[in-house]
From TrEMBL:
It holds the Pfam family Phage_CI_repr. Residues 71-195 form the Peptidase S24/S26A/S26B/S26C domain. Residues 9-50 form the Bacteriophage CI repressor N-terminal domain. This is Transcriptional regulator. The lineage of its organism: Bacteria, Pseudomonadati, Pseudomonadota, Gammaproteobacteria, Vibrionales. It comes from the Bacteria. SUPFAM superfamilies: LexA/Signal peptidase. Keywords: DNA-binding, Transcription, Transcription regulation.
Length: 201
């Protein structure tokens, strides 16, 4: 098909983008992925198929449906997993009406992540997919994806006068607490609230 630069130019034409970062966003990939293509001097054929679909339809999703980003990272429901990358690896399609009317959320604030571990079982099984609504903080008890001490976790959080209680739905895991000082530190960050989950039976 020509040199890498020619292939890249064709992808940008199909997706109506000018910069690599915009191309990556249109394809649901990270800019690092494009760098990897350049390093290997190869762009997978399925990327061109996706770009042609975008060119023809303007979106990969049918009318009335939305693509939700799927972040393929290790969200641990056990003891937590180090976050090394948060790369948009693919997209999943949901009904816009379901998200806006049934769940009551803005689709622009929603993304999907996998759950690893059994500490939130039976509510969230290992390998289940959670839909997360991005929030800057939290005002009610619920199940949240949060980062603490370099680890990304999904747990049930409860308000305490002096901090937060972290609870696992699996009784085999003991609850623990995050002090008010830790909550206010740079080591703690609420990513979003879990508002839906899907899993294999």
């Amino acid at each position: 098909m020509g040199s890498f630069e020619e292939q890249l130019k064709e992808l940008k034409r199909l997706t109506n983008t000018a910069k690599n970062v915009d191309l990556a966003k249109a394809l649901g990939k990270s800019p690092k992925t494009i760098s990897n293509w350049k390093h290997r001097n190869h762009i997978p054929e399925d990327i061109f198929i996706k770009a042609r679909e975008l060119s023809q339809n303007g979106s990969l999703a049918p009318r009335g449906y939305l693509e939700l980003k799927f972040y393929d990272v290790e969200v641990s429901a056990g003891h937590g997993a180090l976050v090394e990358k948060e790369e948009e690896s693919s997209a999943m399609v949901f009904s816009e009406k379901f998200i806006r009317q049934e769940l009551g959320f803005n689709p622009n604030n929603i993304f999907l992540m996998p759950v690893r571990g059994d500490s939130m079982s039976p509510t969230l099984k290992n390998q289940s997919i959670v839909m997360v609504n991005r929030v800057d903080g939290f005002s009610t008890d619920g199940i949240y994806v949060f980062r603490f001490d370099g680890r990304l976790m999904v747990k049930r959080l409860q308000f305490l006068p002096n901090g937060i209680k972290v609870v696992s739905d699996n009784p085999s895991y003991e609850p623990w607490e995050v002090s008010k000082e830790d909550v206010q530190s740079a080591d703690f960050e609420i990513i979003g609230e879990v508002v839906w989950s899907g899993q294999r039976i």
